[in-house]
Amino acid sequence: MKNAQTRRPTLYDVATQAGVSPSLVSLFLKDPGRISEKRREAVQKAIHDLGYRPSRAATTLASNRTKSIGLVIDDYRNLWFVDLLRGMESVLSDLGYHVMLADSRPGANRIKEATDGLLAMHVDALVLAAEPSEPMLAGTWVPTVVAGWRKGVPTGADLITNDDDRGGSMAADHLLGLGHSRIGHLSGSDGASAHRRAGYQSALEAAGVEVVIGETEGTSEEDGYGAACWLLDHHPGTTAIFAANDTMALGAFAAIKARGLSVPNDISVIGYDNSPLAKSRFLDLTSIDNRSDVVGVDAARRLLARIDDPALEPERKLIEPRLVLRGTTSAVH
Amino acid sequence: MKNAQTRRPTLYDVATQAGVSPSLVSLFLKDPGRISEKRREAVQKAIHDLGYRPSRAATTLASNRTKSIGLVIDDYRNLWFVDLLRGMESVLSDLGYHVMLADSRPGANRIKEATDGLLAMHVDALVLAAEPSEPMLAGTWVPTVVAGWRKGVPTGADLITNDDDRGGSMAADHLLGLGHSRIGHLSGSDGASAHRRAGYQSALEAAGVEVVIGETEGTSEEDGYGAACWLLDHHPGTTAIFAANDTMALGAFAAIKARGLSVPNDISVIGYDNSPLAKSRFLDLTSIDNRSDVVGVDAARRLLARIDDPALEPERKLIEPRLVLRGTTSAVH
DNA sequence: ACGGCATTTTGTAGCGCTACAATTTTTGCA
DNA sequence: TGCAAAAATTGTAGCGCTACAAAATGCCGT
Hints:
Two copies of one chain form a homodimer.
Chain A: H1 11-18, H2 22-30, H3 37-50, H4 56-63, E1 68-73, H5 80-92, E2 98-103, H6 110-120, E3 125-129, E4 144-147, E5 158-162, H7 164-177, E6 183-187, H8 191-207, E7 212-215, H9 221-234, E8 240-243, H10 246-258, E9 268-270, H11 276-279, E10 287-289, H12 292-308, E11 316-319, E12 322-324
Parallel strand pairs in A: 1-2, 1-3, 3-4, 4-5, 5-11, 6-7, 6-8, 8-9
Antiparallel strand pairs in A: 10-12
The first copy, chain A, binds a DNA duplex through residues 10-12, 20-27, 29-30, 34-36, 39, 54-55, 57-64.
C-alpha cells in the first residue's frame, strides 16, 4: 500500500528540502536553464525524492494561463478528430501546450456544455470541431478557431476547414475521368455533405452529365444503404456512386451486393473522409482525404498567433483535400 | 467583437452585484437548495447578467477536490473506450463528476505521461484502460481501477475487466454448436488475445477438436490477413475461423475472398469486440460483445466507493461477455 | 582589492475559491 | 410575547503557485 496518508508535497516542501526559496523552485519549473547548476541539481533531486508534482490548479490560478487548448468535438466515434488532434499536437506539444478534449455526444445542445467545461478550466484557446445548434461563447471570450464546419462561426473567430466543395468535384472528376457518365451521389444531411454535393453537382454540370442525388436523413451506413437502394432501383443504368462519406459508401456496398452486382466491375464506388474503413485491405475504398491533420496544424498555428495578439483580423482558410486512389473505382466497362 | 478586454468576473463580482456575501455565492454554487429563495434568485440573476463562470482552478485549489475522474486510454482509435466512457458517465454525471480523458498514443511510455498529466490536474480517481509498460503511479496515489487488462495492476488498485477467457470459449462453443469441427483461430499479440486464445483452446480440447492457431505480430487487419492466409493454405479443410478481434476478422475476409471462397457458405467467421465494424450492415459480423459499458459502470461505482473509503480491500472482477449473432456464422455444410 | 554591472536569488502579495466557525435572522412553541 | 433552537448568512484564513520588485551574489577590469 502506498503512503496514501501523507500530504501531497508542495513547492514549499521542495524548497525546504533543497535549501532554497520557493521562488527559485518556481523559476526552475518555468525554465530550468535560468538558474545556477548547483541549485538546479539540488531542486531536481528534491523534486525526485519527494515525488513532487506541481499543482496545475495553483499554477493556473496564480499565472492565469494554463498552456492548454480546448478541443470540442461532436462524438468520439467520428474518428476524423484524431487527425485533427494529431495535427494540433504536432505544433503544440513542443511549445508545452496541452490539448484538452471534450465531446458533446450525449444530447441536444451539449456542445455549449462541453465548451463551458473547457472554459471553466481556463483553456487559453478553443478549437470548435462540432456543429453548434445555437450561438455560444456568450460572456467570456478566448481565441477561437472553428474547424470542420462553416455555419455559425462566432464573431471574431477564425475558420479553418476542409474544402468540401473542392473534394466533391474532385470525386466527381475522378469518376468522369474514368469514363463514367451515369454517376449517382448519396448525399448526407450535414453541413459538409451540402458542400460535397455542390461540388459534385458543379462538376457534373460542367461535363454535361445528369445529376442524380439520393437524399437521406442522416449520414449513417443505413442512410447510405437506403439512398443506394433508391438509386439502383430508379436509375438502373448507374455505373458509379459517390457517397458523401465512407460509412455511407459501406451502405452502398450492401445495396450493390444485395442486387447481385459487384464493385468495381459493375459499379465504381468512391467515399469521402479516407477513414480507417477506406484504408482496410478488405474494403479498399477509393476516397477523398480531407487532410484534417493539416487543418489541425493550421488551427494550432492560428491560435498561437491569436494568443499573442487577440486583435488579429479573423481569417478564413480552406484546406485542399486530396484523392486517395484504391480498388473500388475503375474505368467504365 | 466581444468585450475581450473586461476581466473575467469572479465570485466577488457576483456577490457584490447580488448584494450578498461571497460565502453565500459559494454556497449557492455548491447546493442552490440550501439558501433562501430570495437570495437564490438574486444570485442566479447576477451570475447570468455577469456571464459568470466559476474558476475550476480556484475551486480545486481551495477544496482540494475536483469532482473529476481521469481515464487513461491507449489510443483514441481503439473505440472500445467509448463504451467504457459511456458506462462511467452514466454513473458519474448525475453525481456531478466529470471524466477527463488522456490518451497515451504518441509513443513509448506515454502512459506514464498521460497519467501524470491527469494527476497534475488533481483528478479524484483514475481509470487505467491501457497496458502499462512499466510500474507507475510512484509517489502520489489516488483511487485507481484498472480496466481491460490484467497484468501489472498497481498495488492497492482494483481490477475490473472483460472475461476474455470466457469470451474465447463462447466463440468456440458457438462454432462447435453449429457443427464445425475444423475451427482455426487468428490470435493477436496483446494480453486480451492470450486469454481469448486460452478460452478457445480449452473449449476445443473439451470437445476433442483439433486446435489450430495462426499467430501474429500484432492485432491489425494485416495481421489477421496474414494469419488467415497461413491458416487457409496449411489447413485447407477449415470451415470456421475465430478471429481475436473484429479488425483481424476483416483481414480474414480479405484472405477468404482472395481464395474465391465465401462467408458464411464456405467458411464461418466470428470476431471479437462487437465493434462498429461488426455492426455494419455490409459486414454483418458475428462477434463477442465484451460489455465494456458494464465495465465502465462497475469501475465508476468502485471508484466512488474507494473515494469514500480509500482503505477498501482491492477487488478483482470479471465481466461476462456475450455473443452477438449475425450473418457470418452458419451451420457447417 | 574594489567599484560597477550583470546574474542569481528572495520576499511579498495576491490569483478565485471554499471551509469552518461565528454571527445574524427566522421559526416554533410555551 | 419571549426565548431557545434551527436556519440562513457572513468573516477570516488559507489552498499552492507565480509575478515582480528588491536584495544578494558573482564577475570584470584596473
